[in-house]
Design a protein that fits this description.
The complex is a heterotrimer of chains A (432), B (278) and C (289). Chain B is mostly helical and 278 residues long. Chain B has 13 helices and no strands. Chain C is 77% helix and 2% strand. Chain C has a two-stranded antiparallel sheet. The chains are: A alpha+beta (432), B mainly alpha (278), C mainly alpha (289).
């Protein structure tokens, strides 16, 4: 009751005082592990990280009020944002996955925060790099999600196998383990192609063979169509044909394969660290008899290739630029408050990778889980691969491959056809 | 006998998923709900109200409910009146431009709602409509209501209308006092359908209602599913707290079922047109 | 035998229709003008560019969009006849029951229509998915389960079944309401005249319900063409893009790809095709009479 009164009162005050009002659009509270459901600071109670961040922001910037708008949460959809853009009323600050906001990162729309803030003081270089287009900084980073292979150690124990050091973790090795696992009644992994969700989990196979989506940040065309990619596709088909991967990828999606890993049906699957908590919940509920030990390892690489780069994606904060420079400066400050919030710390504690130097420092002291270290090591050694997150047509490009994969998996077309068609479709999209 | 058995069988086929849904809403099912194994269990599990308790913790839940109630009123009453009057004109009047009006109304059948949703939103914004009024203004005109009413009105004997006109009644009065009561079954059915539509119109309400305070049950509760999914997994869209999603489904259906039963007395063996013998 | 003083009637009718016309203007005419306008631009609402008829040219080489029209036709054929037939038969049976029983049956048949969005897709996944009811059923009698969602035509069947289930309930409610308002005297008279149950149905019920039935068939067909939610969550338009309807394609083009201009053009093409189809049917009908 009190909270509502406060909200209405604030709105009233804002109207009457003629206070400057900024609109922040976000996707809901970050419910990471251990985030307290309530804080009490200065006698104020908060139930959301954003509330807390906004409270301090408003204190530091008197005369400015922040109105929080909630975006639609369903996957891949940017409906709320689109209609606000359509009606000419964009929010001042938006927080969302980088790929969805890529279309905002243009000179005509986005603030360049480094013009108003010393960004290097707050964020890591890799985080800032993820927010740059053509060398210009158009957003501020929040945390990155990193995914590598989660491995069911019980399955490996049953066939008396230990994972080799990353340098010897090759695709041939993967095949051989897969065959042994098949003999013991397990699938080594799951491929899926029902939709584009979590496609990075299998796109990583292209990178394992040295394939690439784009070369050197050149987004005028795709370079996926290459002999390395053909090898990668044939490898994936081999997994399917030999019965090492779940059958019928056309009707599987990321939800399903993740389910199968958590239930102990497949041994290895690309995922983020927080996803493993589902397996633990299954054990608690009795869906599986007990939790199984697991570890993380990077994707195997093809013999002769360097170690496979890691899949990462940042959520970012974009600010709307207007002709009013003073307003831009304040919006930039709000961007900072929303990007470098407590959320980064908690997400790091759950297994994601903060870009906030403050959060990282805190985590170094408090310590986090061992899998984090494994992923961090792979990340440092192998780098990341370019998903094209800053391309405005990212969503459309992404949707081009999975229908081709569906046909490929049932043998209607061969690997080269997949790549040629993909190349044609994507290049045509990139041209406009 | 056979007839009843068939009806029961059909009822089982149609009703079984919802029984499962109801049953699942009382469990804490963890998992993505992608297979029926996550819902059916041979060994019964402990029943828990945890999902419903969590549901009650949705912020502003009571406000969401009130807004949904407003939606029910706003989707039904104006639609019945406005569209009903058009059907009345179509059924009882002959005028030169009737065909044109007909075609205009029919044309709306070919316009898919989701294709026109953003231009509609932009039109509303341009007129200065925000929030709940913006939602309600655009959903009033409904061609299917017009035509179903018209079909029914045409079977009302014209003599009734003429008698009323001779008595000096105006169209609006005739509509309210003569036609509508005779068509109670159809009106009641329309009310049910419109109410269901108002309670379930996720996309349109999502776009227009951006603040926590003016959202409706369907928008707010749907979002809470994703939020809870985020409690376990960080990527949006995974609903790993599946029992909760089912509880949301049940809660969203409950008002619709209620409205159905309230209205059912009107369209099941209610007034008939046997009131006047020709 | 309607009022035929055209001038006065016209004015009176106008008074009745004006409110509806106002809403019609706001919610259909103005947005349609905007759609037409948008179709000549390429826009994601951040960057906008005038491109003339380029969107339309694109559509002609968009195989997936063209395929979706065929899919819609397939759906209409697979869905409308069963829905009409089943709704009619069920309503006949239900309308002869006691009111309380009637209400319960109608409620249960209406449940599939009431369920929203994602829940529906879960329910159908429980039936057609790889570990679903049908798969378990086939397994238990020793047959290999059909991978419904993995094959193009089988996925179409799955989607059609889903749509049929959700269309029956609403139609039953309408039909029952109409059937119940047929004066009981007609049936009593028929009984006195010695007609059997079946004859009564054939000669009394069917003709009186025919109009409504035709309307419902039309509305169901229109509804089928606009269906996209279940397709979105159950099959994502696949496999092989075989379950996508034009409206689904438009939705994806607009909201996943952010190509609002192209989506507007596609919507216009869809509207014109639909209008043309109905127009052709009308002309054929007129030629026949």
């Amino acid at each position: 009751m009190k909270r509502i009164a406060v909200v209405f009162l604030m709105a009233l005050l804002a109207l009457s005082a003629g206070a400057q009002e900024l609109v922040f659009l976000h996707q809901g509270d970050g419910y990471y592990k251990d985030i307290p459901k309530e804080w009490k600071v200065d006698g104020e109670g908060f139930t959301s990280i954003w509330q807390k961040a906004i409270y301090y922001f408003e204190k530091a910037n008197p005369g400015v009020r922040v109105r929080v708008m909630q975006s639609d949460l369903s996957m891949g959809s940017s409906l709320t944002l689109d209609v606000l853009l359509a009606s000419g009323n964009p929010p001042d600050v938006v927080l969302r996955t980088g790929a969805v906001l890529a279309k905002l990162m243009v000179d005509s729309f986005a603030i360049q925060p480094d013009k108003y803030l010393d960004v290097a003081k707050y964020f890591t270089q890799s985080g800032l790099d993820a927010c740059k287009i053509g060398g210009k900084l158009f957003a501020l980073p929040t945390e990155a999600s990193v995914s590598t292979m989660a491995v069911n150690l019980d399955h490996l124990a049953a066939i008396d196998y230990t994972l080799p050091p990353p340098a010897q973790w090759t695709t041939d090795e993967f095949l051989s383990v897969g065959r042994k696992l098949k003999a013991s009644g397990k699938y080594i992994t799951g491929l899926f192609a029902q939709n584009q969700s979590s496609d990075a989990w299998w796109l990583n196979w292209f990178m394992a063979f040295g394939g690439k989506l784009y070369a050197n940040g050149d987004y005028s065309k795709t370079v996926l169509n290459s002999p390395q990619s053909v090898k990668a596709l044939n490898f994936m088909k081999q997994l399917l044909d030999e019965g090492l991967a779940l059958p019928n990828p056309g009707e599987l999606n990321d939800d399903i394969v993740l389910d199968e890993w958590c239930k102990g049906k497949i041994s290895m699957l690309s995922m983020q660290i927080p996803h493993t908590s589902i397996m633990q919940s299954y054990a608690k509920q009795g869906t599986i008899s007990k939790e199984f030990p697991f570890t993380f390892i990077e994707f195997p690489h093809a013999a002769g290739q360097p170690r496979t780069p890691v899949n990462t994606g940042y959520a970012i904060v974009v600010g709307h630029k207007t002709a009013d420079e003073k307003r831009n400066a304040i919006v930039a400050k709000l961007m900072l408050a929303m990007a470098d919030s407590d959320n980064q710390y908690f997400s790091g504690m759950s297994g994601n990778f903060p870009s906030s130097k403050a959060a990282l420092a805190k985590i170094a002291v408090v310590g986090t889980n061992p899998y984090w270290k494994i992923q961090q090591d792979s990340l440092s050694a192998n780098g990341t691969w370019d998903r094209g997150n800053t391309i405005p047509q990212y969503s459309e490009i992404r949707a081009q491959l999975f229908p081709l994969m569906q046909e490929f998996y049932v043998g209607r077309i061969d690997a080269q056809t997949v790549l040629s068609r993909y190349e044609k479709a994507v290049n045509s999209i990139l041209k406009n | 006998m056979i007839k009843r058995a068939t009806l029961i069988m059909i009822a089982i086929i149609m009703g079984l998923p919802f029984l499962l849904m109801l049953d699942g809403s009382f469990q804490t099912i963890l998992g993505t709900g992608n297979n029926i194994g996550s819902v059916i269990r041979i060994i019964p599990r402990a029943v828990t109200l945890q999902n419903y308790r969590d549901l009650l913790k949705t912020p502003f839940l009571w406000l969401l409910a009130i807004n949904s109630a407003i939606m029910v009123a706003g989707y039904t009453i104006p639609a019945v009146i406005v569209n009903g009057l058009v059907a009345y004109a179509f059924a009882f009047y002959k005028f030169s431009w009737k065909k044109v009006a007909f075609i205009c109304a029919m044309a709306t059948f070919f316009i898919p709602g989701s294709a026109i949703i953003i231009p509609r939103y932009m039109a509303g914004q341009f007129l200065g409509l925000r929030g709940i009024p913006a939602v309600l203004v655009m959903v009033v005109f409904d061609a299917s209501t017009i035509f179903v009413f018209r079909a029914y009105f045409e079977s009302i004997p014209i003599s009734l209308i003429e008698i009323a006109k001779i008595d000096g009644a105006k169209d609006w009065q005739i509509f309210r006092q003569v036609v509508l009561p005779l068509c109670a079954p159809i009106v009641a059915a329309t009310v049910v359908f419109r109410a269901v539509s108002g309670l379930g119109d996720y996309l349109w309400q999502l776009i227009n209602l951006n603040y926590a305070e003016n959202r409706t049950l369907i928008v707010g509760l749907y979002d809470s599913i994703y939020v809870r999914g985020m409690e376990r997994k960080i990527i949006m869209g995974f609903t790993s707290e599946f029992g909760y999603s089912l509880a949301v489904g049940v809660v969203l259906m409950a008002p619709m079922v209620l409205i159905f039963f309230l209205a059912s007395k009107y369209f099941l063996g209610g007034l008939t047109l046997g009131a006047v013998k020709e | 035998m309607k009022k035929s003083c055209t001038g006065r009637a016209g004015r009176r009718a106008a008074v009745l229709i004006i409110p509806a016309a106002a809403f019609y203007l706001l919610s259909f005419v103005i947005p349609m003008i905007r759609v037409i306008y948008l179709s000549f631009y390429s826009t994601n609402f951040v960057t906008t560019k005038f491109i003339g008829i380029e969107n339309y040219i694109r559509i002609f080489s968009d195989i997936d969009f063209i395929k979706s029209f065929f899919t819609a036709l397939v759906y209409t054929v697979m869905i409308v006849p069963p829905v009409v037939y089943l709704s009619y038969k069920i309503s006949l049976a239900v309308s002869s029951l006691v009111r309380r029983e009637m209400a319960i049956y109608q409620m249960i048949y209406y449940l599939p229509t009431l369920t929203c969005g994602i829940i529906i897709s879960f329910i159908w996944r429980w039936v057609f998915g790889r570990l679903g009811l049908l798969a378990i059923g086939f397994d238990s009698v020793g047959l290999t389960p059909i991978a419904w969602l993995a094959g193009g035509w089988t996925a179409r069947v799955a989607v059609s079944v889903a749509i049929i289930f959700s269309a029956i309930g609403g139609n039953c409610i309408w039909l029952c309401a109409v059937m119940l308002s047929i004066p009981k005297e007609l049936y009593e008279q028929a009984q006195i005249d010695g007609a059997s149950r079946r004859q009564a149905t054939r000669y009394i019920t069917r003709p009186l319900v025919a109009n409504t039935l035709a309307l419902l068939a039309f509305l169901t067909a229109m509804g089928t063409l606009q269906y996209w939610e279940v397709i979105y969550s159950l099959t994502s338009g696949g496999p092989f893009k075989m379950t996508a309807t034009p409206v689904y394609d438009i939705y994806i083009t607009a909201f996943n790809y952010s190509r609002f201009g192209l989506a507007a053009a596609k919507a216009l093409v869809l509207i014109i095709v639909l209008a043309a189809l109905v127009g052709i049917r009308r002309i054929l009908e007129r030629k026949a009479t």
